[in-house]
């Protein structure tokens, strides 16, 4: 079992989407827990990719193909995860990276962890204008909108998002959580966001609080 988790993690580290997909299918055929395949396999792999990028051993291409591999694995494992747990969805969440920002890793990891904890996540991708978040929130009747910004120049778009949701009449029903390297708790409060998360783990805790649901 541990060997399969290690293989899943390594396929993400190596940036081999086809391998990740094949391994995910094999894991389910073997009856492995899809949640553990995500948390002990894919998540550990993408965390390692992030560490290698931060240390300068990996560059943007490796980061992107690592994220692609993780997505391939999630496409196989997430339906099995949700189907197997047969539990009510905690809340509908819209996730995206704001306009002008192409960073994917942090957002993807948050989405994975939220899904693993029973949230229904609609990931609208990167470089998304405030209007796209608003449209998606309306489409899925979202309780939470999460916006990631990894650049000081794009974090200003998070404030535009809060304003757009207010103008659309979705606040205060829809809660906004923000994150990203330059973002702080103080900044989140200043722009009227409902919460700030430093990493994927704290994002899950925050989402439970914003959804007013027991963790």
Could you explain the architecture of this structure?
By secondary structure, the chain is an alpha/beta fold. The protein folds into two domains: 84 residues, Methionine synthase domain (Methyltransferase, Methionine Synthase (B12-binding Domains), Chain A, domain 1), CATH 1.10.1240; 119 residues, Rossmann fold (3-Layer(aba) Sandwich). Helices cover 59% and strands 10% of the residues. The protein is built from nine helices and five strands, in the order ααααβαβαβαβαβα. It has a five-stranded parallel sheet, sandwiched between helices. Strand 1, helix 5 and strand 2 form a beta-alpha-beta unit. Helix 1 packs antiparallel against helix 4. The radius of gyration is 17 Å and the shape is globular. The two termini are 27 Å apart. The mean pLDDT is 90.
Question: What's the topology here?
Answer:
Blueprint (H helix, E strand, L loop, with lengths): L1 H13 L2 H13 L4 H21 L5 H26 L6 E6 L7 H12 L3 E4 L6 H11 L3 E5 L7 H12 L7 E5 L5 H7 L3 E2 L3 H11 L5
Parallel strand pairs: 1-2, 1-3, 3-4, 4-5
Helix pairs in contact: 1-2, 1-3, 1-4, 2-4, 3-4, 3-5, 4-5, 5-9, 6-7
């Amino acid at each position: 079992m541990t060997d399969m988790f290690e293989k899943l993690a390594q396929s993400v580290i190596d940036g081999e989407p086809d391998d990740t997909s094949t391994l995910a299918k094999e894991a389910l055929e073997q009856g492995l827990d899809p949640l553990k395949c995500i948390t002990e396999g894919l998540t550990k792999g993408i965390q390692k990719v992030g560490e290698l990028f931060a240390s300068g051993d990996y560059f943007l291409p490796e980061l992107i193909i690592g994220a692609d591999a993780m997505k391939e694995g999630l496409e196989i494992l997430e339906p099995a995860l949700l189907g197997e747990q047969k539990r009510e969805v905690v809340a509908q969440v819209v996730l995206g990276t704001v306009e002008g920002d192409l960073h994917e890793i942090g957002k993807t990891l948050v989405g994975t962890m939220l899904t693993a904890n029973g949230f229904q996540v609609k990931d609208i991708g990167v470089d998304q204008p405030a209007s796209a978040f608003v449209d998606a929130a309306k489409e899925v009747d979202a309780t939470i909108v999460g916006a990631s910004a990894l650049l000081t120049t794009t974090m200003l778009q998070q404030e535009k998002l809060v304003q757009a949701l207010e103008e659309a009449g979705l606040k205060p029903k829809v809660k906004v959580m923000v994150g990203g390297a330059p973002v702080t708790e103080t900044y989140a409060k200043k722009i009227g966001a409902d919460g700030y998360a430093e990493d994927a783990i704290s994002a899950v805790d925050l989402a439970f609080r914003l959804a007013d649901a027991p963790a």
